[in-house]
């Protein structure tokens, strides 16, 4: 029986490499490098993969610069109605939510994540897909370095406070949990995105966490 994994997230799920300067041409890691693809290969041939990573996506905010569609609450509804049936969904958001323009607060970030989990575990989504499990992933803390340092001013402290909040929420909602910050770090090049080695390590850890579900 074939099972389906959907990975829902932002640029680090999409596979955006570290950015040296703002305005650089669009770039994306290939399917040998991106962590969802690494996880997929580790899970085996009886799994299919749906990648739902949108650069700039937040857990709950319409971005005044990048657009209202960056609100993950909108994107998740679309994704859950575009694909299926799915068996496991990974959810890793929160990096963009600690941008200064969104009023940085760990609790505000958590509220957005809670809303997404409630949608995923709600009767409508669960019935449509015949039931599926959620692996909540807390992204590693950002660094206020590189070309995005100004956008993430104050974001380091907020993102460092997220892991215990995410873990408690996962336990309360009956989700799996993975603290990515215990496995990888963001690249010092831009303080936000992951290098190839980080993608490899994270993909392997995600596969193990999914197997444990």
From TrEMBL:
GO molecular function list: hydrolase activity, acting on ester bonds
InterPro entries cross-referenced by the UniProt entry: SGNH_hydro, SGNH_hydro_sf
Pfam families xref list: Lipase_GDSL_2 (PF13472)
Domain SGNH hydrolase-type esterase: 7-200
Hydrolase in keyword set: yes
Source organism superkingdom: Bacteria
Record keywords, A-Z: Hydrolase
Name under which the protein is recorded: GDSL-like Lipase/Acylhydrolase
Source species of the chain: Flavimaricola marinus
Record lineage: Bacteria, Pseudomonadati, Pseudomonadota, Alphaproteobacteria, Rhodobacterales
């Amino acid at each position: 029986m074939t099972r389906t994994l959907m990975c829902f997230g932002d640029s680090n799920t999409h596979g955006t490499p570290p950015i040296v300067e703002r305005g650089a041409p669009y770039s994306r890691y290939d399917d040998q490098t991106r962590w969802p693809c690494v996880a997929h290969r580790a899970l085996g041939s009886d799994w299919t993969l749906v990648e739902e990573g949108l650069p700039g996506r937040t857990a709950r905010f319409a971005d005044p610069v990048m657009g209202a569609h960056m609100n993950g609450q909108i994107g998740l509804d679309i994704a859950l109605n575009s694909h299926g049936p799915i068996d496991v969904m990974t959810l890793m958001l929160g990096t963009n939510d600690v941008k200064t323009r969104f009023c940085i607060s760990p609790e505000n970030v958590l509220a957005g994540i809670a809303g997404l989990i409630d949608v995923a575990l709600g009767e409508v989504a669960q019935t449509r897909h015949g039931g599926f499990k959620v692996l909540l992933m807390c992204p590693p803390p950002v660094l206020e370095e590189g070309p995005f340092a100004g956008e993430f001013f104050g974001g380091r402290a907020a993102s460092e406070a997220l892991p215990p909040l995410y873990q408690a929420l996962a336990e309360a909602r009956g989700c799996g949990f993975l603290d990515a910050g215990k496995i990888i770090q963001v690249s010092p090049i831009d303080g936000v995105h992951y290098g190839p080695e980080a993608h490899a390590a994270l993909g392997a850890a995600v596969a193990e966490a999914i197997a444990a579900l």
